[in-house]
Amino acid sequence: MIRQALAELRRMAAGQLRPNAPEPSSAGADVGDDEARLAAVGATAVTVALCRAAEDERDQPWFHDPLAVYVANTAEPSRATIPRPGLVFWVAVRTRFLDELALDATRAGIRQVVFLGAGLDARAIRLDLPHDVTCYEVDRSSVHELKKRLLLQAKLTASCERRVVVADLTSSDWLDALRAQGWMSDSPTCWIAEGLLIYLKPEPRDALLRQLASVSPRGSRLGITATSSARAAQAGIWESGVDGDPAKWLESLGWSAEVSTLQQAAAAFGRPVTVETERARSAILIDARPTVPQAALPNMPPNARPIQRTTERAAE
């Protein structure tokens, strides 16, 4: 069943793969079809896992991802779905960047970490997070079901509390699903959105970031990846990029951001970019904190209200 599910995701990922397209899309998808596009985001989970498994094979890897290694060993990647070196490098840099952000946030006292469009993210398993941290993984049911089977088959367990949230981030009630699993909007949160925002059109993307700010008290953190609008247009299947100064863009949405390019982050990590590419120039890594009091943010979603913790959880 797992091999069959991975094969299906690989077929989706290979559907519109082109030499210059670093992220896959769904097979035969109409670019205006939201369902197909969201399914394509799930398909990228396998490709990203293969990239992380490649990092694991280095002599001095930045991280170890046992789930990614298991996926690489279980899947049978075709020539069309083997990640290109540039994508492998980008995934390695952004993974380390967001790893360090999540670890720093929990060392500072944050006790709830939310992974938006979690895919096969294994940070709840592979990072040395405090036992009293709760990780919430938000994604569609098909991705969660595959991940559940993979974790059971690989005999992998989380180092902290891990809760599954079945939700569509483009829906109006996804925060309610998050609350139902125990997340509290009156406690600081570390939000991680890796490889997600490019699949949202500018209006819903900005609405999501504004919504996150509206439910993020002082001390919260936001880690995201993005790209330039020019790069997004070249990729074809992506819906949005960032024009101008990313820090000013995020400031308008309630966040104070520190922005790093792929080149800057790679150099800081001791593995500088050796060949300048469009991705190297356009890929963006962002570490942000909320700047505006909740009541001051415009268009605060009606469901963005503090609640008491509940005990209901998704079955794992």
Briefly say what this structure is:
By secondary structure, the chain is of the alpha/beta class. It is 41% helix and 13% strand. The chain has a domain at 85-296: Vaccinia Virus protein VP39 (Rossmann fold).
Note down, in words, how this protein is organized:
The chain is α/β, with parallel strands linked by helices and 316 residues long. It has a domain at 85-296: Rossmann fold (3-Layer(aba) Sandwich). 41% of the residues lie in helices and 13% in strands. The protein has 12 helices and 7 strands. A 7-stranded mixed beta sheet has the order 3-2-1-4-5-7-6, with helices on both faces. Helix 2 packs across helix 3 (66-74) and helix 2 packs across helix 4. It is globular, with a radius of gyration of 18 Å. Mean pLDDT is 82; it is low at 8-39 and 294-316.
CATH architecture annotation name of the domain at 85-296: 3-Layer(aba) Sandwich
Order of helices and strands: HHHHEHEHEHEHEHHEHHE
Structural class: alpha/beta
CATH class of the domain at 85-296: Alpha Beta
Which residue ranges are poorly predicted, with pLDDT under 50 across at least 5 consecutive positions? 8-39, 294-316
Major sheet: arrangement of strands: 3-2-1-4-5-7-6
Terminus-to-terminus distance: 17 Å
CATH topology of the domain at 85-296: Rossmann fold
What is the strand and helix layout of this fold?
Blueprint: H1 2-14, H2 34-56, H3 66-74, H4 85-107, E1 112-116, H5 123-126, E2 134-139, H6 141-154, E3 161-166, H7 174-180, E4 190-193, H8 202-214, E5 221-226, H9 229-235, H10 246-251, E6 255-261, H11 262-268, H12 278-282, E7 284-290
Parallel strand pairs: 1-2, 1-4, 2-3, 4-5
Antiparallel strand pairs: 5-7, 6-7
Helix pairs in contact: 1-2, 2-3, 2-4
